[in-house]
Specification:
The chain is of the alpha+beta class. It contains 2 helices and 5 strands. The chain starts with 5 loop residues before the first helix and ends with a strand.
């Protein structure tokens, strides 16, 4: 992989993410359990987990290093942010 420019980095990650997410159907949403947040992730904040039809999932984190759970911004007026709890 010989990525050099910001545009190449963006294309690389966009293509990789598209492959995982485009065409998937959300089958479930739930918050990470207190136990899993604490024991598996060492987090104090619990994120929403979005589950897909191929048993893959995504979950927001506070940063690239996974230091804590993260919130999600939305386009819905009645739910502008999906919070951590």
């Amino acid at each position: 992989m010989d990525i050099k420019t910001p545009e190449e980095i963006e294309k690389y990650w966009t293509d990789k993410i598209k492959k995982q997410l485009v065409g998937r159907t959300i089958t479930s949403v739930q918050y990470l359990s207190r136990e899993d947040a604490r024991e598996d992730w060492d987090w104090s904040d619990r994120s929403l987990i979005i589950m897909f039809d191929d048993n893959s999932w995504i979950m927001p984190m506070s940063d690239d290093e996974g230091n804590n759970g993260g919130a999600l911004a939305t386009s819905e007026r009645e739910l502008l942010t999906i919070p951590v709890i």
